[in-house]
C-alpha cells in the first residue's frame, strides 16, 4: 500500500511538471517569436493567434488583476495541498489525474501573472518581446499578462439577412482564444464532473478528522446501550434464578411422591402378613 501511494505521488508530480513545461515552452516561443495579434494559419479552422489578456481563462476580464492573481495563488496552494492529502489517502487514479490537470493549468497561468511582467519586454504589434533583466520588464509582479494563442474558428460565416437582429453579421463558432493551461483546466473540470461525481460529493478539507471522530463515536460506549446490556444481563440472571427455583420445586415434588408410594406399599405388605 505504501509503495502504491509513493508511486501515485511520483506519477502526479511527473505529470504536473511535464504539463507545466509544455505550457511554458509554447507561451515563451509564441511571445518571443510573434508580434502581438500576429496569426499563423494552420488549417481553415485552426490558427495560432498571439494575444495577451489580463483576466481569467479564455480572456475574461471582470475581476481586478491583483485580486485575480491573488485568488489564483491561493487556489493553486489549496488544490496542491488537497492533492497531497488524496495521494496519502490512496485516492483512485482518475481522480488524481483530473485534479492534477486543474492544478497545473492554474499554476501555468499564475506563472504568467507573477513573473512575465518582470522578465519580458512589452509585446506590441510591431516589436517582438524579449527577455530582460529582472525588474526591467513591462509590469510588476502580480500584474503580468497571460499569453494566449489557440484559436479555433470552426464555423466562420455571415448570417443570412432573414435572421432576426443578427442578419448580415459575421458569425464565428467558438471564438475564444486560449492557451494550453486553459485546456488543462477545462479538460480536468469536465472529467471531474463526468467521471468523479462520487469523489466530488465527498469533498471536505477536514474529511479525515470527521471520519476519525465518527469512528471514535462508534467505538465509544453508548450509555443507552450499556444500560440495555445491563438490563439484559439482569433479565438473564432472573431467568436463571427462576429456572433454578422451578427445578428445586420439581425435585421436592418428586421426593414427596416417592415417600407416599413407599408408605402405601408398606401398608399393603402389613395387611397381607396379617
Write the topology of this structure.
Elements: H1 2-33, E1 39-43, E2 46-53, H2 65-89, H3 93-119, E3 146-151, E4 155-158, E5 170-173, E6 177-178, H4 180-195, H5 197-201, H6 207-219, H7 223-273
Antiparallel strand pairs: 1-2, 2-3, 3-6, 4-5
Overview of this protein structure:
With 274 residues, the chain is α+β, with helices and mostly antiparallel strands. It is 62% helix and 11% strand. The protein contains seven helices and six strands; from the N terminus they run αββααββββαααα. The strands form two sheets. Strands 1-2-3-6 form a four-stranded antiparallel β-sheet. β1 and β2 form a beta hairpin. α1 runs parallel beside α3. It is globular. The termini are far apart. 20% of the residues are buried. About 5% of the residues have low confidence.
Short synopsis of the structure:
The chain is α+β, with helices and mostly antiparallel strands. It is 62% helix and 11% strand. It has seven helices and six strands.
Shape: globular
Query: How many DSSP E strands?
Result: 6
> What percentage of the residues does DSSP assign to strands (E)?
5-15%
Rg computed from alpha carbons, rounded to a whole number of angstroms: 40 Å
* Strand-pairing-aware structural class: alpha+beta
Number of helices: 7
Helix content: 55-70%
How far is the N terminus from the C terminus? Answer: 99 Å
List key phrases describing it.
274 residues; alpha+beta; globular
Amino acid at each position: 500500500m505504501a509503495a502504491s501511494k509513493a508511486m501515485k505521488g511520483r506519477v502526479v508530480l511527473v505529470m504536473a511538471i511535464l504539463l507545466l513545461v509544455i505550457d511554458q515552452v509554447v507561451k515563451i516561443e509564441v511571445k518571443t517569436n510573434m508580434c502581438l495579434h500576429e496569426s499563423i494559419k494552420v488549417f481553415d479552422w485552426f490558427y495560432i493567434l498571439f494575444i495577451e489578456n489580463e483576466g481569467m481563462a479564455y480572456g475574461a476580464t471582470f475581476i481586478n488583476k491583483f485580486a485575480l492573481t491573488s485568488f489564483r495563488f491561493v487556489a493553486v496552494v489549496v488544490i496542491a495541498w488537497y492533492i497531497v492529502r488524496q495521494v496519502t489517502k490512496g485516492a483512485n487514479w482518475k481522480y488524481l489525474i483530473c485534479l492534477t490537470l486543474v492544478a497545473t493549468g492554474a499554476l501555468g497561468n499564475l506563472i504568467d501573472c507573477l513573473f512575465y511582467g518582470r522578465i519580458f519586454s512589452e509585446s506590441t504589434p510591431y516589436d517582438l518581446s524579449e527577455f530582460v533583466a529582472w525588474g526591467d520588464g513591462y509590469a510588476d509582479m502580480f500584474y503580468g499578462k497571460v499569453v494566449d494563442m489557440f484559436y479555433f474558428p470552426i464555423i466562420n460565416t455571415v448570417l443570412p439577412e432573414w435572421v432576426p437582429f443578427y442578419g448580415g453579421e459575421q458569425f464565428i463558432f467558438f471564438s475564444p482564444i486560449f492557451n494550453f493551461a486553459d485546456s488543462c483546466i477545462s479538460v480536468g473540470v469536465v472529467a471531474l464532473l463526468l467521471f468523479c461525481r462520487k469523489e466530488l460529493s465527498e469533498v471536505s478539507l477536514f474529511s479525515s478528522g470527521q471520519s476519525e471522530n465518527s469512528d471514535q463515536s462508534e467505538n465509544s460506549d453508548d450509555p443507552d446501550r450499556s444500560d440495555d446490556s445491563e438490563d439484559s444481563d439482569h433479565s438473564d440472571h432472573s431467568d436463571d434464578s427462576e429456572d433454578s427455583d422451578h427445578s428445586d420445586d420439581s425435585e421436592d415434588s418428586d421426593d414427596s411422591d416417592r415417600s407416599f408410594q413407599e408408605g402405601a406399599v408398606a401398608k399393603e405388605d402389613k395387611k397381607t402378613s396379617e
